[in-house]
Amino acid sequence: MGQVGTKDRFELVGTPPDHQEAEFADAVREGLSASPRHVPARFLYDARGSELFEQICTLPEYYPTRAEREILEDRADEIAAAIDREPTLVEFGSGSAEKTRHVIEALIARHGHLRYAPIDISRAALEASADGLLADHPELEMVGVWGEYARGLLTLERVTDSPLLVLWLGSSIGNLTHTEALAFLRDVRERLAPQDRLLIGVDLVKDPAVLEAAYDDAQGVTAAFTLNLIARIARELGGDLRPEDFCYRSRWNPDEERIESHLEVVRAHTAHIPGAKLEVAFEVGDRIHTEYAHKYTPKSFAALAADAGFAVERNWTDGEARFRSCLLAPR
Prior knowledge:
Blueprint: E1 10-14, H1 17-33, E2 37-38, H2 47-56, H3 63-80, E3 88-92, H4 100-111, E4 114-120, H5 123-136, E5 140-146, H6 149-155, E6 164-168, H7 178-191, E7 197-203, H8 208-214, H9 221-237, E8 246-253, E9 258-265, E10 269-273, E11 278-282, E12 287-294, H10 298-307, E13 310-317, E14 323-330
Parallel strand pairs: 1-5, 2-12, 3-4, 3-6, 4-5, 6-7
Antiparallel strand pairs: 7-14, 8-9, 9-12, 10-11, 13-14
Helix pairs in contact: 2-9, 3-4
């Protein structure tokens, strides 16, 4: 926190680094010992991964950020008006909070004050966004929650009787399987009161060529982002894994309506990862699954929300009908 006059309006709470390191080691050991091999997508977002993802969001092929920003710019006042009283604004996976600014400013304009609680696995991202937001908005106070979404929900306590407006932007729900998304939404639903609302960014099913380009850009930034997982394992857990022994692959699966991303082995080798107490033999063509990006139709998302105990109260769509922001109300 470098800005003068903002420290008294920012509090950081969350998971100690040693606990996060143990979680990473466990996930690598379990995932690389499984069949098929996998590492959860949340571990793509260390400091370097978060930087690369911010670059991805500026790429011409990566439309979701622009489409969602358009909605939030144009509809922030309507979103702010969805809750009558001043809410506490909570955000899962806040990152730079660049898009969130539109909602923050609309809520401050409507109520004169705002408490904002971003939840992110990157401490650097939380502190950087707090520096900028608090310097620009003296009416704002922040509690940054450093950790995963579920732990963030447990960490946050309802300190007033004000309603919550929870944001889950960027179509992050797409990284979860249907089973995982349903379980997470049900968990969120259990923690919300009737007056609370959940705003979710949902990427819509569209031309496969558009989708595949968005997740495999010409500049190779998405490839670097995913290969950084291998570099992170080497940095944090030691051993001899090397990014140059892998290449990035992604494809659209029309049956599951999702992009599937993975790392493919290009050189046979045996990797030693002492921090995970693991030795892994890789053959050419072996794969490590890294990420899903599920896409939804309006009908399929409404059904998921209903199964989780929510009703879709409002929808906003960008001008090209690529992306939808859905306001969910507990039922």
